[in-house]
Every structure is written in structure tokens, then in C-alpha cells.
Amino acid sequence: MQEEVFYSVRMRASKNGPHEKGGKHISGGEQLSTYANLKHSVNTLLEKAISHSRGNPDFMQIQFEMIDKPIKKIQPLPMGTHEVGSVEEGQSVARSLLQKAGVPAEMIEKAYEQVTEYSDLRGAILFDIRSGSRIDDRQQKGVRVSRMDWLTTNFEKWADHYQMPRSPRVKEALVLATKVSTHPATVAELCWSDDPEYITGYVASKQLGYQRITKLKEYGDERGCRIFFVDGLSDRHSYIDYLEKQPLFVQWGEDE
Ligand code: PML
Ligand code: MG
Ligand code: MG
Ligand code: MG
Q: Coiled-coil annotation: which residues (predicted)?
């Protein structure tokens, strides 16, 4: 039987010009799609970009390209939720989860000192837990994790099973966190949204799973965060290549 061919479909949208000309990041998105479904994928990403709480974009790009490598399938990280009453409580839960995942306390503090500096990047930063410094070379862009998805029917089964909303946001975040944590050099990820109306974030790692924290910033705040804490990264380029290029489907349970 012939394997089905998939396409990576990517969108980025910004305001006051394209990102590379200093525009403000509005939205980004990733899909893996069959040829027959491309129209639907492009529309989903278009819809995401033009109805966004960060504002109306005046630049948007959607592109697709055929995937020429076998697509890995991996199970989603197990999930937990921490209900917190304040940002302070949420951030203290985040710090203790990061420590549990293996990030030394002083490195957590170092990363937090740099959080605001990186809060308007559209991608993630790679933070080395030995040197306490950012080690990607992507400046204002950051690293964009790409070529991943979770088939909607399978995701919805997962969501119903765990009594989670069938939210594309949760799906996309869990897909990304699962992909990132699967690489052996990743110690943990810390993330909260740059969308002003969304204040739940998470800490994720292979051991801890995907640990949601219900309040990591105040409503209205457009400063987001996405840090990958990495260790023993002898080959930074192959790590970034994995994040950007390795195609991967998250799949829950046994069903096809
Ligand atoms: C984002 O919006 O960019 C990140 C959302 C992270 C949290 C999603 C969740 O509720 O689990
Ligand atoms: Mg985004
Ligand atoms: Mg899809
Ligand atoms: Mg966002």
C-alpha cells in the first residue's frame, strides 16, 4: 500500500508590515494536510489570522510544501492542570515544576531575568541550563517549531476522554510541547500566550508531562513567553533542524 502524501502548511501574520521589517507579530500556525484537504487547511489558518485578539494583520503569508520524509507518530504528553488564584502563585508553581524537571534554581532565575526582553519574539528561545544564556542565533525571530499536527478526530477523542474543551489552542500547544519534549536534549519548556485574553500557560517535560497552570499573566498583557531549556546540546543545528523540519503527528491511543 502506498503511504499518503502530506503537505506542511504554515501561516504567519503581522501588523505594521512583515515581521522582518519590524511588524508586530499577530499570529502563526502550522498544519499537516493531505492534498485534498489543502483548501480547508489554508482557510483554517486564514481564519486564525484575520480574527485575532492581538489585532488585525496587514501582512499575512500562507505557504505549503510537500513533505519528503516519513512522518513520525508519537503519543501526546500526559496532562495535568494546576488551578491557581494569582499570577504570583502561578509563576511559583511554574518555577517549582521547572526545578522538578531538572532546571537548576539559579538557571530558572537567570531565564526569568531575560523573559521580558524576549516577550515579543514570534518563536521560542533556546536557553542553555549550563551557561545560563540564550544559545539560538535567531534574534527577533526565535525558533519556530514546525511540521507537526494532530488529526482533529483523534484529538477530539482525547479531549472528550479528559473532559477538556475541543480547543485548537490546547491542541496546538500540546502538539508543540510533545514534539519539543521528545528530543533528548530538551529539559523542559515554559510557555504562556502572547494573546491578551489568554492567561493559562504550562511547563512541559518528558517526565512531568504537560502541566497547565491557569494563571501565568494578567488579562490584557500581550507579552508571551516560550523558552526551551536545553542541556548537553553539542549539536545546536541538528536540534533546531529537528524542531523545524522533522514531520510528526501526535496520535492518542491505538486508532488510525
Ligand atoms: C498560545 O496561546 O500561544 C499558548 C497557549 C498555551 C496554553 C494552552 C492550554 O490551555 O493548555
Ligand atoms: Mg502564536
Ligand atoms: Mg488540522
Ligand atoms: Mg498567540
A: none
Strand order of the β-sheet with 72-74 is 72-74, 248-250, 148-150
Ligand index nearest the alpha carbon of residue 194: 4
Q: Which residue type does 117 have?
A: E
Pocket test for ligand 1, best of 191, 208, 216 (most atoms within 8 A of CB): 191
| Burial grade of 236 (CB within 10 A; 0-12, 13-18, 19 or more) | middle
Rounded to whole angstroms, the Cα distance separating 32 from 69 reads: 13
Helices 168-182 and 152-161 sit at what angle, rounded to 10 degrees? 100
Cell of 18: 512583515
pLDDT digits (tens, 9 = 90+) for 61-113: 999 999 999 999 999 999 999 999 999 999 999 999 999 999 999 999 999 99
How far apart are the C-alpha atoms of 19 and 139, rounded to whole Å?
Answer: 12
Within 6 A (CB) of ligand 1 lie: 169-170, 173, 191, 193, 195, 198, 200-202, 212
Interface ipTM? 0.89
Nearest to 79 by CA among 169, 170, 180, 149: 170
How far, in Å, from the CA of 61 to the mean position of ligand 4?
16
Protein residue whose Cα sits closest to atom 9 of ligand 1: 170
